[in-house]
Amino acid sequence: SQQGEEDPQALSIQEGENATMNCSYKTSINNLQWYRQNSGRGLVHLILIRSNEREKHSGRLRVTLDTSKKSSSLLITASRAADTASYFCATDRGAQKLVFGQGTRLTINP
Amino acid sequence: DTAVSQTPKYLVTQMGNDKSIKCEQNLGHDTMYWYKQDSKKFLKIMFSYNNKELIINETVPNRFSPKSPDKAHLNLHINSLELGDSAVYFCASSPDPGGNTIYFGEGSWLTVV
Asked: A58-76: per-residue pLDDT in tens?
């Protein structure tokens, strides 16, 4: 069954603006991960946040996790055209597999 | 120096045919996966192997048969292809099956006509 659900499904912003994507899930997790998929390519791991962590940073990326609300957000600051891609959250429920959502399609307009 | 490589990248074939997709990883990982991404971008796990042993089979039809000759290779064979099998198939690997970072291949675009 689908675990993570990203919101919005599509997001279009101007270059330089910040982009925020959300992910909600239904059951307890060990960790939550965010991946990026450029058009026609495979998924690339961005960041992993464990269930006992609340916030994590990596360059222009900031991920938050609220286990009480079963939700996570990915913030990309100072967006660039190269950030145009689909972004997926994936949850690890300890069943030896990651369960992916359907992704948010992000478009950065020059 | 590609980490996870899969071939072919594109495959167009007729209904009823049998086809294989090959995958190799040079990361030294113990766990390999096959994922299917449909036209709506929904990514779903099909199989997971750890050290050549099947650990996850997500109710995939018997027409799909993975084979892992060694822990660096996980091939996917599909019998009697159907229109609904059209999708992008991703091979992936991770150091272990415990929910760590997954490294994906570039995908194999399968179109059944």
From this structure: 999 999 999 999 999 999 9
Judged by CB atoms closer than 8 Å, whether chains meet at B48 and A30 is answered as: no
Cβ neighbours for A95, distance < 8 A, ≥ 6 positions apart: none
Which 3 state secondary structure label does DSSP give B18? coil
Least confident of A1-5, A9-13, B46-50, B107-111: A1-5
How many Cβ contacts (< 8 angstroms) between chains A and B? 60
Give the tokens for residue B82: 């159907």
**Taking CB atoms and an 8 Å cutoff, what residues of chain B touch A51?**
none
Cβ separation of A100 and B101 shorter than 8 Å? Answer: no
Element (H, E) at A12: strand A10-14
**Token representation of residue A106:** 């992000």
| Measured distance CA(B14)–CA(B73) in Å, rounded | 26
Tokens 């675990």 identify what position? A3
Q: How far apart are the first and last CA of chain B?
A: 34
Tens-place pLDDT, residues B65-103:
999 999 999 999 999 999 999 999 999 999 877 768 899
* Backbone dihedral angles phi then psi of residue B45, each to the nearest 5 degrees: -70, 140
Minimum-distance CB partner of B42 among A30, A44, A102: A102
Q: Which residues contact A15 (CB under 8 A, 6 or more apart)?
A: A79, A80, A81, A108, A109, A110
